[in-house]
Amino acid sequence: MHTEDELLTTEPTSCLFVLSGPSGTGKTSLAQAMLANDPQLAYTKSVTTRKPRGEAERHYEYVGRDKFLSMVHGGEFIQWIHPSYDEYYGTLRAPVEEAVAAGRDLVFDYCPEGYLNLRRFFPDNTVGVFVMAPTVRELRRRLAGRNSEDPAELEQRHRMAQLDFAVVDQHDYHVINDDFDRTLHILESIRRAEKARLSRQRQVLPKYARQSRVALLRYYDPAV
GO molecular-function annotation terms (predicted)? Predict the structure, then answer.
């Protein structure tokens, strides 16, 4: 027998929160800041064949090309991409499936191709935020300031960004990273709103149904 004391709280389904966009927009720094601010949010390392850009880049697992392709053939990735040269990037299947099954949230920093691939597998869990610099010129400046690519690679990054711009409308949100703290606050607000979305709280509707009365909606004319 159900009473009025039944709790109407619920555990929302897992949210795969993807910061998507071209290289140089600050996606990785924002994702790391979100992790630092919320111990309930988790991150799964991407696997890549490219060389590290510095000692601080610990959010990747670095492997050789042959090892990466072996992992592809072994079905170890939930999604993987080959955006340029001999660079490959992939997301391991097991940690994502475990997080979704347990209702845990993950944050990712992806190029749009990676985001769209992940959304194909988890359309109900994936939230895409396209993160961009204030201008294309500023994006170029940030990329050049990293000192990690030669001129040919920088030009390729710019061409890839133009391809990314063609799928902005495939995302759920669009955020300009012109002030880091402000952008971080916006992203955290988006995540909180997504956790409150009714479609992520499926368990709560039957609880309301047990306490509700079905009735027709009536509209009253106050002049009558």
Answer: GMP kinase activity
Q: Residue 17: which of 26, 30, 5 has the closest Cα? A: 30
- pTM for the predicted model, two decimal places: 0.83
pLDDT, tens only, 22-55? 988 999 999 999 999 999 999 988 899 987 766 5
pLDDT digits (tens, 9 = 90+) for 192-217: 999 989 888 877 877 777 777 777 77
